[in-house]
Amino acid sequence: MTFRENNMEFHHTSIMLPEVLEGLHIRENGIYLDGTVGGAGHAFAVCERLSGGRLVGIDQDQDAVATAAGRLCPFGEHAVVVRENYVHFDQVLDALGIELVDGILLDLGVSSYQLDAGERGFSYREDAPLDMRMDRRKSLTARTVVNEYSREDLIRILRDYGEERFAPNIAGNIVRAREQKPLETTGELAELIRDSIPARFRTGGHPAKQSFQAIRIEVNGELDVLAASLKRMIRRLTPGGRLCIITFHSLEDRIVKNCFREMENPCICPPHFPVCVCGRKPEGRVITRKPIVPSEKEQEENPRSKSAKLRIFERAS
Question: Residues 129-146: what's their mean pLDDT?
């Protein structure tokens, strides 16, 4: 899909759209929350299935909010878009007078638009200022991370968030380079990362991919936001309501999988206890024992969908 709003284009392809719509179990008069509304591809399809229901879209990216608001305009008061980080979804719903919702969707990671908009600094394929902020009101940028974080912190970020085996090499080279002059652009950083990885290991895509992912996660606090939101989202669902989450890398997926498992089986009694005495009750059930992945056809048509995984949790009736 290509939407044009406010003299800018927002390119977006909705990942696993049929699977998401089925997973949400949409009720015509239900209330739904899209916490990462982006170009409103999923949200528009949800609104088409509502009759008297309502959709609330949240996104921290100003361009996404403008595009989504325009895209959902035909649905009038049945669709509202708010600029906010989804970690604050409670406040958004409270302000709208909504107590519970029938379904919530999170489509995580960086959008196709953000990657393709080279000036945003998300892509290692474009030479642009080091930025990577999804919310440009925030002060922390990739430039700050690269030029001001200690070597130890850089190693931690690259290793933990990017699963980069050459994190010490890359961090050491960043520190040495910035002693001469600050690193300013994505092109400089991508070249430095490439040169930090032995040639025989530069396989399976661009050598800077994992490091750029790690720095982006740090700039936007993505994993902390996800971990802080999941349980609250489940508890904001109506009985039988569903939470659908699309992840794009193992770190996100692990957080979602572990949270869903804990909410389904929260008991902390020792395994040898004959009965539960902790008093913790299941808050719902995991619908997807194994994550749903895009079809081969979708992966061929949209290569960016290849790493996507969809997990679904249903609130207890």
Answer: 95
